[in-house]
Design a protein that fits this description.
Elements: H1 5-13, H2 22-28, H3 33-44, H4 46-52, H5 60-80, H6 84-91, H7 103-126, H8 132-142, H9 146-188, H10 193-216
């Protein structure tokens, strides 16, 4: 039987199992383990969240911009924590000592620094977006007063526009700074380029694997 418009509205404003109290979720959440795991991945794993998860207040274009920003930052933050001792060690490596995985032991400490800074940046980026539950709260509070409801929604739309504009400006500035820094780093340390690119990709992959394990836990 097809859903009516009212049933769609009721479903939209109902609490999701993840928002319920534990005792309620135990009874009402009928998802199997694999379904719950997949839902978690879509919400918290950045690649899957970008391409498989729909969020009305965060369009896919914005998600792709954030994804590219994340990749930029992995390379920049990784380069920031490459110190003189590390560069000296790489420059003095014998050819036979350098292989495809030899960079991993030298990159462990930068993995922790890059992860920490990445989490802080993600936290800052979240400030530029209005949560969907804010709109739901307005509808639920003011559903009996259409004038106030309309006024609150107009204010929310204006807030979303301002936050989007602020986000675009913020990202543009970060892109410019990152690009300038990467060009400088690339030209000053030509022998470190290969090591830097490999370690940056390694750190990005490890972060994705850890986010999957976090969802599993």
């Amino acid at each position: 039987m097809p859903k009516t418009s009212m049933s769609y509205i009721d479903e939209y404003f109902s609490k999701s199992p993840d928002e319920m109290y534990f005792d309620d979720a135990i009874v009402l959440d009928k998802r199997k383990f694999f379904e719950y795991f997949c839902d978690n991945l879509k919400d918290n794993q950045i690649i899957l969240n970008n391409f498989c998860s729909y969020e009305p207040f965060k369009p896919r274009t914005i998600k792709i911009i954030i994804f590219i920003l994340n990749i930029f930052l992995y390379f920049v933050i990784n380069a920031l924590f490459i110190n003189d001792d590390y560069i000296s060690e790489v420059y003095n490596l014998e050819e036979e000592e350098d292989n495809i995985f030899s960079f991993i032991p030298r990159s462990i400490n930068r993995f922790f620094y890059t992860t920490l800074v990445g989490i802080i940046i993600e936290f800052i980026v979240d400030f530029f977006f209005v949560e969907e539950k804010k709109m739901k709260g307005i509808f639920l509070r003011e559903k009996d007063n259409r004038i106030i409801l309309k006024s609150q929604i107009v204010k929310l739309v204006e807030l979303i526009k301002k936050k989007y504009i602020s986000f675009i400006i913020f990202v543009f500035l970060i892109y410019i700074i990152c690009l300038y820094y990467l060009i400088c780093f690339y030209s000053i340390y030509p022998k470190i380029q290969k090591e830097w690119i490999k370690s940056s990709i390694f750190i990005f992959i490890i972060r994705q694997i850890l986010s999957i394990l976090q969802c599993l836990l």
